[in-house]
């Protein structure tokens, strides 16, 4: 709704500190990866919520301090998603 985050997807993705390495890692993605990501964004924009309502996520190889003790809502590929973070 614009109160917390920008209203356009590209503004969210490229805002400072939002997605670590976004600018650096673009070269490693294949055309298939990009098509799948675009399809996922379109599905989310249409209301798909395969993990329910989530607000946080991280790469499966990361161990962020904020996720310690939290129960993941689901994992999709290499990303772990969380709804409420009750500690």
Description:
- The structure is a single chain.
- The chain is of the alpha+beta class and 87 residues long.
- Helix content is 28%, strand content 13%.
- The chain contains 3 helices and 3 strands, in the order H-H-H-E-E-E.
- A 3-stranded antiparallel beta sheet has the order 1-3-2, with no helix packed on it.
- The mean pLDDT is 82.
Secondary structure topology:
Layout (H helix, E strand, L loop, with lengths): L8 H5 L8 H4 L5 H15 L10 E4 L14 E3 L2 E4 L5
Antiparallel strand pairs: 1-3, 2-3
The best one-word shape is globular
H and E order: HHHEEE
Mean pLDDT: 82
Q: Work out the radius of gyration.
A: 14 Å
Largest sheet: 3 strands, antiparallel
Count every helix, treating DSSP H or I runs of 4 or more residues as helices.
Answer: 3
- The protein's oligomeric status is single chain
Widest sheet: strand ordering: 1-3-2
Number of strands: 3
Strand residue percentage: 5-15%
Terminal CA distance: 27 Å
In short:
The chain is of the alpha+beta class and 87 residues long.
């Amino acid at each position: 709704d614009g109160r917390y985050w920008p209203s356009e997807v590209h503004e969210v993705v490229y805002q400072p500190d939002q997605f670590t390495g976004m600018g650096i890692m673009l070269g490693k993605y294949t055309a298939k990866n990009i098509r799948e990501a675009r399809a996922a964004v379109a599905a989310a924009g249409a209301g798909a919520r395969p993990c329910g309502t989530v607000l946080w996520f991280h790469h499966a190889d990361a161990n962020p301090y904020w996720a310690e003790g939290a129960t993941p809502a689901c994992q999709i590929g290499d990303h772990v998603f969380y709804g409420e973070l009750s500690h």
